[in-house]
Each structure stands twice: as structure tokens, then as C-alpha cells.
Amino acid sequence: MIRFSQVSKRYPNGHDALSDISFLLPKGSFTFLTGHSGAGKSTLLKLITLTELASRGQVLVGEKNLSKLSGNKIAAHRRTIGSVFQDHKLLEDRTVEDNVALPLVVSGVEHKETHRRVRAALDKVGLLNKAKRYPITLSGGEQQRVGIARAVVGRPQILLADEPTGNLDPTLADEIMQLFLNFNQIDITVLIATHDYRQLNRFNCGVISLSNGRLVNQSDITHVAEGGHV
Amino acid sequence: MFEALKVWLVRHLQVLFETLGRLWQTPVASLMTTLVIAIAIALPLVLYQIVLSVDRLSAGWQGAPQISVFLKIETSEGAVDPLEAGQTLLQNPKVEDVQYISPEEGLSTFSEMSGFQSAIEALPENPLPPLLVVFPATGNDNTASSELADQLSELPFVDTAVYDQQWLHRLTAMVNVVKRAVIVLALLMGAGILLVISNTVRLGITNRAGEIEIIDQVGGTKSFIRRPFLYIGAIQCLFGALLAWLITSLTLFLLVKPVAKLAELYQSSFVIGYVGFAVAGAVALSVTVLGILAARVTVDRYLVRLRPS
Lengths: 230, 309
Fold this sequence. Notes:
The complex is a heterodimer of chains A (about 230) and B (about 300). In chain A, about 35% of the residues lie in helices and about 25% in strands. Chain A is of the alpha/beta class and about 230 residues long. Chain A has a 6-stranded mixed β-sheet with strand order 6-7-8-3-9-10, sandwiched between helices. Chain A has a 4-stranded antiparallel β-sheet with strand order 2-1-4-5, covered by helices on one side. Chain B has 2 domains: about 10-60 and about 170-305, no CATH class; about 65-165, Alpha-Beta Plaits (2-Layer Sandwich). In chain B, helix 9 (about 220-265) runs antiparallel to helix 10 (about 275-305).
């Protein structure tokens, strides 16, 4: 469950990225976050991962009030979230499996268990045969799938994605979206920032629309919540 | 519990080997850093070892302060009996003991030690006066011993009384100056090592900024991010200390022979010792701790930026 209550974010340079945002994403929901570039989508995701702190208002994730977290609790909070980035953010000097293993390595998961779970995650995104390759030798779509495998390997409760299909052609984009849907089936709360309106129309799910940092529309959120995943 | 310990230990070993691998990948840069640290350690260490040797030698001498009392052959009251004179001196409460060295004894010791045997044999008569060596009861008190020497030279049968330790105290004072210089030098070099490690770590952070960001995003704790950099500081300093020990030993080895030759000319038993394992170990340990601290402070200053704001 993610709840924003009258959240505002003003950056030190005076720019108001978000103003008075309130919404509730129930556990197991699947939601698109949309809006023009600069509307505040990335900032909103950063507030959930606690990369940024809200200037005003309250962000609740599960039972946690994020403004109360500090030090190692921030790290522990981030381990409950899987993040997918538009530019993948993969380590070029490590193999695909080492990249995917990173969240488990930082959590201190035992070596054999790490290996097992990395293979399972790579299998889910269809890249098991490329485990020993380096990211640079993979296509854009494949790199994005490595990023997704890394995001889910730690069995997060929440999956966040910032423009995950931004650089992909429609077929690849659909494949990636299907992956997110699959993870949503196992009760992971999914929030995807995108301005790919084609995807919005393909799926019947919640949409949060931002414009200039304000919430302009939150259609269907309650509908999906009632729809069964709560 | 045991499992957690194992994971922790394995992680540390992993980081250790990763860091060694990274240092190995840039051998020239790593070696230069290590060399700078080694020289910074070796310089005060060589000086320390020399001062220690001088100190040990002068401490051996200082054990028995003595006053040389040269007697007149005769006074207006007739010939001086050295043994009687010795008895007189012993009555002074400030005198602990008196030892008589006859002119003959003095001459034979002198000819043995100086190598001027033939010249001495050519002398028509023994030029040395009878000597009473006085051991003051005042022990190592320099001023009291000097006063006693002055007092003894006033006696009618005494030609001169010389307090032998004066030059030794000058030497001790000089050694103290050098000792202080060693401490100051060591502190300066320590500060130098701090800066070198700090700079190396800062470079490392810059090179790995992307990796740090990703680790931070996937939930790596601050200590997880910090660890490889602490290992860089520790390893470079440890290798630096080992190399410094080698440099110091080599330098001292080069000094041993000329110093022995010099000492021989002064009939001295002065020898320079090598740096022992205990001292080398203590230096290595403290420099390594210093390296870890420097790395930690540097990383922490960077990590502040990762805190959400």
C-alpha cells in the first residue's frame, strides 16, 4: 500500500515539482503514472524510494511513514522496492548475473541461495542463456529485462518503473509490459511512469495523471482496487 | 547466528580480493601511492633507529658518573701519597668511592688504546700524573657532581678535578633535540599519509560514482558502500608499512659499515641496530588504522550527499 497525503516537493532551487498530491495505491494494484515530461513523475517515484524527501505532507508505504526513516532503515526500505530505470543503470564491468545479484549481495543473502534466485529471476525475463554476458553485448530490450530481473530478484512488495519502455519499439515495449503484468499477478504493487499512451489504452488499470506537479486525474484506481487484488 | 557470521566473513573476503584485484589493475598508480606512504614512514623510522642507538649507548655511559682528580706530585709540605689522598677524599660524605690509577697503569692503558706505543716508548719519563677516580654519592645529579668537582680542585694536593660527564650531557641534550625532531617529522608524515589516502579514496569514489549510486538505490547500507574504500586505505597503508620496513632495513644496512668504522676510530662500541619486529609491527598496525580512518572520513563526507533531502 502506498498513500500520499497532501504531498508537496520543492527543490532547493525553488522549483515546485509536486503540489498537494494525495492518492492511495492498494496492495497488489497496477497503476500507470502519466503526464508530460517535467510533470513530476520521476520526483513522485523518488519520494517512494526515499531518494528525495517530501517538503510537505506525508508518504506512507505499508505501515512506514517515510519521513521518519533514517540511516540503515532507508536502505532496508529500499530493499522492499524494486526499481526499473529508463537508462537501465547496469554496471558495465559486471556480468548479467552479477548485476542481477546485486540487491541480494547487499542484503547479505547466502551465496548458493543468491545463485538460485538470480537464475530464477533471469528465467522469468527469458535471459537465462545470457547470464554470463556483459550488459554492453545485449540489445536495449534485453538490458531493460536485466534491469527488471534485478528489480524483482529481492522479492519486493513494490515495483516502480520510470519510463521502462521509453527507448523500445512497440513490440518490445509490449513484451516488457507483459512482464510487469506477470509480476502484478503475484501480488506485487506495480507503479509505472510512462507517457506511452498506447500502453494506457491497452490495459484496463489505474492511472494517475500529473500536470505541472498537480494531480489532474486518478481514474479507475478504486476500480482496480475493487477488482480483486486488494 | 553462525550463518550470518559466515555471510559477513565471506563478504569481507570478497571485498578484500576485489580490492586487491582493483589495485592490481592499475599497478603503476597503486605502486606510486604505496611508495609515497613507504617513504613517509621510512624517513622518521630511520632517524628514530639512529637516535635509539645513540641513546642506548649514552645510557650505558651514564650509569657511572665519575670525577677525574689529578694529583700534584708534591706540595710545599712534601711529596703527596696518592693512597693517603684517596683516604682524605673518602671522608667527604659526597664521595661514594675512590679508585686509584697510578701513572704507570695510566700509561700502559693509554698506549694500548691509542696505538701511539712507539711514541710513548720514546718519552724520557712518564708524563702522566697520579689519578684518583671519584664516584660521587650524588649519582646522576649533574649540578651536584660539577660542584663536587669544583670543591675537590680546591684541595691543596689536587692539581685539577674534571667532571667527565659534561660532554655526555651535551650529547644527551642534542639527542633530545633530534628525538623531538623525529616526533614532529613523524606527525608531519602521518598527516601526509592521511592526505595521500584521502586523495586515493576520492579518486576511487569518482571512478565508481555510478556503482555507488546503484548500490544505494538497491538498498546497500552506508557501511556496505564504505567497505571497499576502507580496504583500499588499509591495504595501501599495510603494504606501505611493509615496504617502509624494507627501505629502513636497507638504509641501515648501508650505514652499518661506515658507522662501525667511525666508532672504531673513537674506540667506541657504537652500533646501529635494525628495526625490530615489534616496532615494525606496531608501526604497520598504527599506519593501517590511520589509513582506515582517513578513508572513512573521506567516504563519509561523500555519503552525506546520498542522504535524501
